[in-house]
Every structure is written in structure tokens, then in C-alpha cells.
Amino acid sequence: MTFDWGYAFSQVPKLLEGLRITVEATLLGSVLAMALGLVFALLRRSRFRVVSRGTKAFVEFVRSTPLLVQLFFLYYTLPNYGFKTSAFITGVIGLGVHFATYTSEVYRAGIEGVPTGQWEAATALSLPYHRVWTSVILPQAIPRVLPALGNYVISMFKEVPLLSAITVVGLLGEAKELGSHSFKYLELYTFVGILFLVVSLPASFLVRRLERRFGQ
Amino acid sequence: MSDVVDALPRLLQGAWVTVQITIGGALVGLLAAVVAGLAGTSRRRAVRAVGRVYVEFFRGTSAIIQMYWFFFAFPLLVGYQLTPKWAGVLALGLNTGAYGAEVVRGSINAVPRAQYEATVALSMTPSLRMRRVILPQATVEMLPPFNNLLIELLKGTALVSLITVVDMTFVAQTVRDNTGDSTAPFLTILAMYFVLAYAMTLGMRWLERRAARSVGRGPAAVPREVPVPLRIDQGAGGAR
User: Residues of B with CB below 8 A from A193's CB?
Assistant: First the structure.
């Protein structure tokens, strides 16, 4: 069997359209994961045991179970509870929540890395509680963990193809659809792989430079 | 709910398939990680380059794409159709191995340089040096990150349901198709995945302690030198 380069290149525009959707899902999912991860990290520090223990249990559970199953769960059960939305949004929610459990650990490490003296100084200045976080702790914790968060954005990009299982037509979904007509899966899936490399390799190179910049 | 109870035997059969794929993937992954990791520490540039290409290739794309490629594209290339299970094990194993290779390389490089120099002074052969000095110490460093990779592998096995392997996720899908209930079957298998992940973590912790002890690290190494006073309730045979 020969590799049909002509066919492969002729399908690139359609694959790029799929790639656009994959990137969009990654960006939206990342925003959700970063916001929600911070919320989880803060909840885990709550004085109320029910809240901190509950958050910890939830984070552990979501982190040790497959994203694919979580996506199926959301996709099939959310409508039963009156939450009707598109497969794309369901996918973004699934990605966001799943990766928030990873980013919350990153934030936690960042927050614990802030020296105790900073807390004491904030107390000594009798700053209000929310100012302690917004003006003292988080501005020091977050820049340090940016490279680690960047790594999770790349990881998420590579998990987006799972959304094809709940009918989202991203890069992989596009290739599946094209393949069902032409049966040229070799060309299509090989090019899908190449397109993923084209995005993820430069991205991880950038993150590595970011890591060096922040001196880790 | 009673539908799920009826389906429990099938779900457990699916869980067994999930475990098989995990074990297969872990074996392929371990082999790939050690080979590529050792290649990464080689003095020869060409060997290092080959290891590097493998790692970047498999880490740069995702497991699902690799699995689809092995299952749908690879047969068109070579005219040999892998069974779904093998395509899954191969893709997951090679994917995990690429991440594992970095762990192996890092842990070998983290063994203190003096250890290496000592083996040279004792004129050990390179293979003896690896087996008796470098790898046992590097293994202690490798196991905690390997635990994370193993959990990721277990989570990754759900993908094989997309290439028609009847694993836990696949069975849950059929239960949903038959009963129309989606909450109970998926929550049940999520719990089962969690239990499996927890059991694996416990197993890996045990291995970590063993490995640490075997190179004389960790709390278990202390009593050998320092006599530990016997507790009365333990009796003579109780203290180790």
C-alpha cells in the first residue's frame, strides 16, 4: 500500500478547520481549569473540615478516574437534570474540571512556597483577609507556577481528541469523518499526528523556555 | 439501579479486561522506558538521538491518536491487522514508555557521580555497574513517578473501548444502551476505576519501601545497626 500524498495534502484545509476547533476547546478548557483549580486549592485550605476534606476527596476521585468516562457521564446525564447544552460545551466542562484537579495541586504547591514571613507581615499590617490573598500571597504564588500550568495546557491539548467520542468534530473527529468516505485512514491519521506535533512541540519548547526564565 | 446490579458480573468481566490492558501496557511501557531511558544517557550521539525522537514523537501526540493509528492506519501500511487488544496495549505502552523514559534518564543522572567513579575504581564492567550499583539506586527514585504514570495508564485504558475492546467502559456503554440509564453504570465504573487506582498506589508504595530498603535507605535500615528495645507485648519474635 502506498501513501497517497496528493490526497493527504488535499485534505489539509479540512483538517486545519478541525484543528481550529481543537485549539478553541483547549483554550476554553484551560481558562476553566485555571480558574476552577484555584478555587479547589483555596477550598482545600478552608477552616471548615467538611469543605476541605470534601474538596480533597473530589479532587482525588476525579484525578484517578478516566476523562473519557467522565465525558460520557456528563454527556449522557447532564440533559437528564435539565442542563441542555452542546457537546462542545460539555466537552469543555469535562476538560476544565478534570484538569482543574491537576492545576489545584500546582497552585497548592505555589501557595505553600510563599514564605511564612509574608503571612506574618500581612497579619502585622492587619490587612483585610481578601487583601492578604489578592495583594500578598497570590501575586507571589502564581508567577512561580506559570510554567507548570503551561504544561497542563499542552497536556489538555492532547486530550481534546477524546471529545470526538461525544460527537465533537475537532481534528480527530474531522479525520474520522473524512475517512468514513475515502477509507484513506493511513494518510488521514498520519497527518492528524503530524498536525498535533506541529502544535505541541513548539508549545512545549516555549514552556521549557518559560521554566528557565522563572529559574526552576 | 437494579439494572446495574444485574450487569455487575459483566462489569467485573470488563474490569478484568481493563486490568489485563493495564498490565500489558505497563510491561510494554516499562521495557520502552528502560530502553529509551538508557539510550538517553548514552555517550553516542546517534543513540541519544533515536531515543529523543521516540520520546518527542509519542509525547507530542496523544494516546488516542496513536491507538487509532495502530488500529486503523498501520494495517493499511503493512497489510497486517493487529487485534484491538494488541493495538491498545501497544499504543498505551509506547505512550507511557515515552514519559517513563524521561523518568529513567533523570533518575540515572541523579545517582551521585561518586558512585559511578567508585565502580570504575573497582574496575566493574559497564553491565555489572548498571545492574549492581546504578540501577538499584536509580530505581528508588523512579518508583514514585512511575506510580503516577501507572495511574495515567489505567485511565488511558478507557480509550480501548473506542476500538471495540470490551473493557469496563465498553460494558458500561452497552448497559446504558440496554437500559437507558446512564447515571448508575457510569458512576459505578468511575468508582471501580478509583478502587483500581487506589489498589495500584498501595502496591507501588510497598514496592517503593522494598526498593528503598534494598539499597539501605528508609527507616527499615536503622534497626540492623541499633538494637531496638523489645516491647513487652511483642515477645522475642515480634521485633524485626
Answer: 61, 65-66, 69
Q: What is the CATH number of domain A5-213?
A: 1.10.3720.10
Residue A117 pLDDT = 94
Evaluate whether residue B46 is within a structural domain: yes
C-alpha grid cell for residue B217? 535507605
Q: ipTM score here?
A: 0.89
What DSSP letter does each residue of A159-175 carry, written as one string? HGGGGGGGT--SHHHHH
Q: What is the pTM of this model?
A: 0.88
CB contact under 8 A, B176 and A76: yes
Count CB-CB contacts under 10 A for residue A112: 10
Of A29, A32, A56, A34, nearest in space to A44 by CA: A56
Residue B216 lies in a domain: yes
pLDDT of residue B225: 44
Write the pLDDT tens digit of every residue in B161-220.
999 999 999 999 999 999 888 899 999 999 999 999 999 999 999 999 999 988 887 654
CATH number, domain at B66? Answer: 1.10.3720.10
Closest residue in A to B198 (Cα–Cα): A64
CB contacts under 8 A, B 64-83 vs A, are: 64-66, 68-69, 72-74, 76-79
B99-151: pLDDT as tens digits: 999 999 999 999 999 999 999 999 999 899 999 999 999 999 999 999 999 99
Per the structure, how many domains does chain B have? Answer: 1
Interface check B178 vs A, CB under 8 A: no
Q: Looking at the partner chain, which of A68, A189, A204 has a beta carbon nearest the beta carbon of B72?
A: A189
Provide the residue ranges of all domains of chain A, joining segments of one domain with +: 5-213
What would the mean pLDDT of A117-140 be, rounded to a whole number?
92
Hey, are the CB atoms on A64 and B61 less than 8 Å from each other? no
Q: Does B10 map to a domain?
A: yes
Compute the distance between CA of residue A110 and CA of residue A91 in angstroms, rounded to an integer: 28
The residue of chain B with its CA nearest to that of A203 is B60
Q: Which chain A residue has its CA at the smallest distance from B68's CA?
A: A189
Q: Domain of residue B151: give its range.
A: 2-220
Contacting residues of A for B21, CB less than 8 Å apart: none
**Residue of B74, B173, B183 lying closest to A77 (CB–CB):** B183
- CB contact under 8 Å between B158 and A1, yes or no, is no
Tell me whether residue A143 is exposed, middle or buried, using C-beta atoms within 10 angstroms of its C-beta: 0 to 12, 13 to 18, 19 or more.
exposed
* Interatomic CA distance for residues B80 and B160, integer angstroms: 19
Phi then psi dihedrals of residue B217, to 5 deg? -110, 165
